[in-house]
Design a protein that fits this description.
The protein has 16 helices and 39 strands. With 661 residues, the chain is an alpha+beta fold. The strands form nine sheets. Strands 13-12-9-10-11-14-22-20-19 form a nine-stranded mixed sheet, with helices on both faces. Strands 26-25-24-31-30-29-28-27 form an eight-stranded antiparallel sheet, covered by helices on one side. Strands 3-2-1-4-5 form a five-stranded parallel sheet. Helix 4 links the parallel strand 4 and strand 5. The longest helix is centred in the last third of the chain and has 21 residues.
Length: 661
C-alpha cells in the first residue's frame, strides 16, 4: 500500500500526479532544482526536497540524488512522470533496489523498448508491422527521402529528414551529436520517410495478472520539429476495422515484453490505412488527458493500482465523445519556433477543471481542462522545456471540441512572452483541420506564415494602440497630485494633440488624441467614438458597434485584450537612451543558452547560410548561420559557454561591404 510518493519530475506532470495522490490520501513529495524553488509543483507538495543546481543534468537527471531525496523524505514509491528519467531502466532498477515501489513497467520492459533499433526487431518478431531499418552507411539515392532517428530517447531530438544524398553524412553527424547530448547515446539509424504520414498511437494498460487493455487511439499528427503540438482522441482517420487492427498490434507489442503499467504504442499510418510501428513509450504520455476525458479513466490512479498489485477489470470502458489537446508553448512560431524566456506577468485561461477527470455521464457539458506548471508572476527560464500548459477540451463531437478549444485559447490572457497561442487557434479553425485532413506535414502544406499570423489584424492592433494610449493618459491623471479635478489632457485654449507611439506586431503606430467639449477625439480617425476610459478598461466604437479593451501595463510592455484579438505593444520612448553599438556583421544570440558546437574558427571564409555554431536551450538545438558570405573576424565563444540574449556570438565581415544585409 503506497502511503508517500515522490514524483521524479517537475512542472505540470508532477502536479498532475499529486492531484490523484491527494484524492487517495497519499502524501506527496516533490524534488526541485534551484531554478524551481518557487515553482508550483515544489510549493504544492506536502514535502519538497532540493536538488542543488539548475540544469537538468545536475538535478532531475541525477538518479542518485533523486533516490536519496526519496529516502530522506520517507517516500515508499517513485513516479517518474515523463521525460527525464522516466524511460531509464537503470533508474527503475535502482528505485527497486532501494526498496521503493516503482510506478512503471519492469526495468527489462523499459530496456527492451529503450533502443528503437532493437525494439523494431522485437516487434517484427511479434508480428507487428514495422518500417525497414536502414544503415546510414548503405543508404542510396533510391532510398531517399530518409529520416535519421536517434535509437535512444524521443521528443524529436536526434531527428533529421534528408532529401539529398550528399547531405547525409553531415546530417548523420549532427544527429549523433544531438542524440549524445540529449540521451548519452549517439546511436542513430535511418528509415524511409513518409512525408504525409499520420501519427496514430494506442494507449495500453497492463496488470500483473495477464490483462492488457488497448484504451483507444490518439492522433498526434500536427507536429513541429517532430514534436507533437495538437493531439486528439479518437482519431478522425480511424474506422472500426482499422481500430481493431491497431488495438491488436498494440496488445501484441505489450505482450511481447511482458508489459505492466501504462504505456503507448506509436504507429505511422499511410493514407490507405496501413500502419507501421514507430516506438513504444514505456511511461505516461504528455497527451494522456485526451484519453482520460473520452473514457472517464484516471490513468495515474490505474498506474498506482497496478503498482500495488490490483487487477484491471476485464475490459476498458467505451470511448465517449471527442477530446482535443494543444500544447501551449513559450515560443515564436513565426521565427523558427524560437523559445522564449522571461517573466510571465499574467496567465489566465478559461477552465472548468484543473487536472480533472470528470465522468462522462455529463454527455452534453463541454469540459475545458488545463494542466499547467506555471502561474502569473512566474519566470520562464532557459533550463527546461518551454511548455506553459496543456489545454484540453471534451465535447460530444469533434467540431464542438475544436470550436470550444479555439475559443478558450482566444480568451486567454497571456502577458509577458510570445507564445504559439495564435497559431493553435488558427489551426483549430482551419478548414482542413475541421475536415480531419491532417498529417505530419500540416504546417508545410498550409503555410506556417499564415497559420502563425496574429489573431489581431492591423486594424485591431491600431484600435488596441488607441486604447493603450487613452488608458495611459487615464492612469497618469489618476496618479496626479495637483489639480486633480481637471480631466486629462485639458487645455485652456486649443493646442496640439497629445501623442504616444507604440511598436506593434504590424509596425509602429502613432496615436494622437485631444480632449474636446464633446469628449476625447482620436486625431487620425475622428469616426472612432471614445466611451468610458479608465486605466485598465477602454470603450471604443465605430458607428453603433462598440468594443471593450482590457489594458494591462507592465515595464516596457502594454498588453491589450479584446474580442478582436490579443495585442502586445512596446511603448516608443520620446527621448530614447543611446544604445550600445555592436560591430557590423555581428551575430547576436537570439535566446539564452549553451554553446554546444562550433564549426568555424577566426579567419575562416564562410558563405551565406553556412552553419557557424549551435546553441542548446530548452531541450532543443538552434543553428546559427552566417548572414552573408565573408570572413569570420571575431569568435568570442567556445563550446560550453553560457550566453545571454543579445550576446555577440561571432562577427562575419563581408568581402564586399555592399553585401552586408
Amino acid at each position: 500500500m503506497i502511503s508517500r510518493l515522490l514524483v521524479a519530475n517537475r512542472g505540470e506532470i508532477a502536479r498532475r500526479v499529486f492531484r490523484t495522490c491527494r484524492e487517495r490520501g497519499i502524501t506527496t513529495v516533490a524534488v526541485h532544482s534551484d531554478a524551481d524553488t518557487r515553482a508550483l509543483h515544489a510549493t504544492e507538495a506536502d514535502i519538497a526536497v532540493r536538488l542543488p543546481g539548475v540544469t537538468a543534468a545536475d538535478t532531475y537527471l541525477r538518479a542518485d540524488l533523486v533516490i536519496e531525496a526519496a529516502l530522506a523524505a520517507g517516500a515508499d514509491a517513485v513516479h517518474p512522470g515523463y521525460g527525464f528519467l522516466s524511460e531509464n531502466a537503470a533508474f527503475a532498477q535502482a528505485v527497486i533496489d532501494a526498496g521503493l515501489t516503482w510506478i512503471g513497467p519492469s526495468p527489462d520492459a523499459i530496456d527492451a523498448m529503450g533502443s528503437k533499433i532493437a525494439s523494431k526487431k522485437l516487434m517484427a518478431a511479434a508480428g507487428v508491422p514495422v518500417l525497414p531499418e536502414l544503415d546510414p552507411a548503405t543508404v542510396t539515392e533510391a532510398d531517399l527521402p530518409v529520416l535519421i532517428k536517434a535509437s535512444a530517447g524521443g521528443g524529436g531530438r536526434g531527428m533529421r529528414v534528408v532529401h539529398d544524398l550528399a547531405a547525409l553524412p553531415e546530417q548523420v553527424e549532427a544527429a549523433r551529436a544531438e542524440a549524445a547530448a540529449a540521451f548519452g547515446d549517439p546511436t542513430v539509424f535511418c528509415e524511409p520517410y513518409l512525408a504525409t504520414g499520420r501519427h496514430i498511437e494506442v494507449q495500453v494498460m497492463a496488470d500483473a495478472h495477464g490483462t492488457i487493455w488497448a484504451v483507444g487511439e490518439r492522433e498526434c499528427s500536427i507536429q513541429r520539429r517532430h514534436q507533437k503540438v495538437v493531439e486528439e482522441a479518437p482519431s478522425p482517420m480511424v474506422d472500426p476495422a482499422m481500430r481493431e487492427r491497431l488495438h491488436a498490434a498494440a496488445t501484441a507489442a505489450a505482450a511481447a515484453i511482458g508489459y505492466r503499467g501504462a504505456g503507448t504504442v506509436e504507429f505511422l499510418a499511410a493514407p490507405d490505412g496501413s500502419f507501421h510501428f514507430l516506438e513504444m513509450n514505456t511511461r505516461l504520455q504528455v497527451e494522456h488527458p485526451v484519453t482520460e476525458l473520452v473514457t472517464g479513466l484516471d490513468l495515474v490512479a490505474l498506474q498506482l493500482d497496478i503498482a500495488e498489485g490490483h487487477p484491471l477489470p476485464p475490459t476498458p470502458p467505451a470511448i465517449h465523445g471527442h477530446a482535443i489537446e494543444v500544447r501551449l508553448y513559450a515560443e515564436d512560431p513565426a521565427h523558427t519556433w524560437r523559445p522564449q524566456t522571461g517573466p510571465l506577468h499574467t496567465f489566465t485561461l478559461p477552465t472548468t477543471t484543473e487536472f480533472g477527470v470528470p465522468g462522462t455521464e455529463a454527455a452534453d457539458a463541454v469540459v475545458v481542462r488545463v494542466d499547467s506548471g506555471f502561474a502569473g508572476g512566474d519566470v520562464v527560464t532557459p533550463h527546461y522545456d518551454p511548455m506553459l500548459a496543456k489545454v484540453i477540451v471534451w465535447a460530444p463531437t469533434r467540431s464542438q471540441a475544436a470550436r470550444a478549444l479555439a475559443g478558450a485559447l482566444a480568451q486567454a490572457r497571456i502577458h509577458g512572452l510570445v507564445t504559439n497561442r495564435d497559431l493553435l487557434v488558427n489551426v483549430l479553425r482551419h478548414p482542413a483541420f475541421l475536415a480531419g485532413r491532417i498529417d505530419t506535414a500540416f504546417f508545410e502544406q498550409h503555410g506556417l506564415d499564415m497559420l502563425a499570423r496574429p489573431l489581431a489584424g492591423e486594424d485591431a492592433q491600431r484600435l488596441s494602440a488607441y486604447a493603450a494610449a487613452l488608458a495611459a493618459s487615464a492612469a497618469e491623471r489618476a496618479s496626479a497630485t495637483v489639480v486633480t479635478g481637471l480631466p486629462g489632457g485639458w487645455r485652456n485654449v486649443a493646442s496640439a494633440p497629445q501623442t504616444r507611439a507604440y511598436q506593434a506586431p504590424a509596425g509602429r503606430i502613432d496615436v494622437g488624441y485631444r480632449r474636446t467639449r464633446d469628449g476625447v477625439r482620436v486625431e487620425d480617425e475622428p469616426e472612432v467614438v471614445v466611451g468610458e476610459v479608465t486605466a485598465t478598461r477602454v470603450e471604443l466604437g465605430r458607428g453603433n458597434v462598440r468594443h471593450v479593451f482590457t489594458v494591462a501595463t507592465y515595464p516596457e510592455m502594454v498588453c491589450v485584450d479584446s474580442v478582436l484579438g490579443p495585442v502586445s505593444l512596446r511603448p516608443v520612448e520620446r527621448f530614447p537612451v543611446a544604445q550600445v553599438q555592436v560591430a557590423s556583421g555581428s551575430l547576436l544570440a537570439p535566446l539564452p543558452g549553451a554553446v554546444i558546437r562550433v564549426a568555424v574558427a577566426e579567419g575562416d571564409q564562410v558563405t551565406a547560410g553556412q552553419p557557424l555554431l549551435w546553441l542548446e536551450a530548452m531541450k532543443m538545438q538552434h543553428e546559427i548561420t552566417a548572414p552573408t558570405g565573408g570572413t569570420v573576424t571575431h569568435l568570442p565563444v567556445a563550446v560550453g559557454h553560457q550566453v545571454e540574449v543579445g550576446a555577440v556570438l561571432a562577427v562575419v565581415t563581408p568581402a564586399d561591404p555592399e553585401a552586408q544585409p
